[in-house]
Amino acid sequence: MLFEPSESQALVQETARSYAQRTLVKLATRLDREARFPAAQLKELADLGLMGVNVSEALGGAQAGAVAYALATMEIAQGCASTSVTMAVNNMVAETLVNFGTAAQAQKYVPEITSGRFEAASFGLSESHCGSDAAALRTVARRDGSGWVLNGSKQWITSGDHAGVIIVWARTETAGAAAKGISCFLVEAGAKGLGIGRHEDKMGLRASSTVSLSFEDLRLSEDAMLGAPGQGFAIAMAALDGGRIGIASQAVGIGSAALQAALRYARDRKAFGKPIGDFQALRFMLADVDTELAAARLLTLRAAALKEAGQPFTREGSMAKLFASEKANRACDVAVQVHGGYGYIDEFPVERHYRDARVTTVYEGTSEIQRVVIARDLLR
Asked: Does the pLDDT value for residue 206 go beyond 70?
C-alpha cells in the first residue's frame, strides 16, 4: 500500500504549503488580534485554484480530487486556521452546487466561488435552537405563485456577511417525518428580506466571520431551489460527510502547527543547564502527539481517498473528524504546557492554536454525533 501523494496531489499540497508559510504564517497573529476577515488572502487562494480543489476545470476548479483538497487544507490550516475554515466552507458549497444543482445553477454560482469574485459562500443549516438536531429546524419556505417566500433565521453561519451565495435549508412540508419536509434554496447576497446579524466575538478562529441570518418575507424564484422538494436533509447530510474531511484536515493542520512550535521551543528553551527537550517527560509528550497526529492524518486521507474513488465514506469521515479534532486539541494542550507561562500569552502562536483547535470538536458535527454515526454504521 502506497502512502505518497501522486504528482498532481503533491503539486497542490506544495502550492498550499508555499503560500501558507510565505504569507499566512506572518499574518495569522494580526488577523486574529484584529478579528479581520482575510479577504485579500482568500482572493489569492482562489487565484491558486484552492477554492474549488475538487471541482471541474470547466467551472473554474482545480479538478485535483478530494485527497488533494485534504492535503491543501492541512497546509493552509498550519498557516492560519481562520483562513482555512473559510476556504473549507467555500469548497463545500461549491461541491454541493455541483453535486445537487442544475447545470444552470452550477454555471451561475460555482465560477464566482472558485475565481474569488465571491469573497465567500455560506452553508445555512444551523439555528439557535438546533445544531446537532438539524431536522428540528424552523425556518419555513411557503409556496407563493410560481416561487417561494422564506421566513426564519439561522445561527453560527460562517462568512454569512461576506457570502455571494448562501445555501439555506427550510421546511417546505409540515406533515410526515421532520427530515422529509426540508428543502434547500440558494439565497444571493443583498436579497430583499435578508438580514445579517452581528459578528460573533468568538474564542478562536477570530478572523473567520460568524454571524446570524434572518429572512423576512424573502421572495425566491422557482429556480432558487437546490435539488428536489423534500431532498434538503439528504443534501445537508451528504455535504456534511464531505465537510467532515475538511474539518479533520483543518484539525491536523492546527495540531501540526502547535507541534512544530512546541519542538522549536523545546530545542531553544533551557532549564537546569540544558534544553528542556532533553527531559524525558517532555520527550514522551511530544512523541505521543506526533504519533497521534500521524494517525489522524492517515484516517483523514483514507476518508478522502474513499470519497475520491466514489465509495461510501460516511463512517470513515466521522472517524477522521472525531479522532483528528480530539488529537489536535491534545496537541495544542501539550504545546501550551511545553511553553509553560509563555504558552498562556499571545506572544507565542500556541495560545492561538489552542483557541482555534477547540471548535473542531464542535462544528460540522460534535464528537458525540460522530460517535453516533460510527456506531450506527457498525451496528447496521
From this structure: yes
Q: In percent, how much of the chain has pLDDT > 70?
A: 99
- One domain for residues 179 and 244: no
The least confident of 122-136, 172-186, 210-224, 334-348 is: 172-186
User: CA 336 to CA 140: how far, in whole Å?
Assistant: 45
The residue segments making up the domain with residue 93 are: 7-118
Same domain, 224 and 246: no
* 213 domain-assigned: yes
Same domain, yes or no: 370 and 325:
yes
Asked which of 118, 145, 169 is the last residue of a domain, the reply is: 118
Annotated catalytic residue, options 119, 347, 364, 368: 364
Q: State how many domains the chain has.
A: 3
Tell if the pTM clears 0.85, that is, is over it: yes
Q: Which of 92-106, 130-144, 266-280 has the lowest mean pLDDT?
A: 130-144
Residue 248 lies in a domain: yes
Report the pLDDT value the prediction gives residue 47, as an integer from 0 to 100: 98
Active site residue 292: no
Residue 108 predicted with pLDDT over 90: yes
Q: Are residues 361 and 256 in the same domain?
A: yes
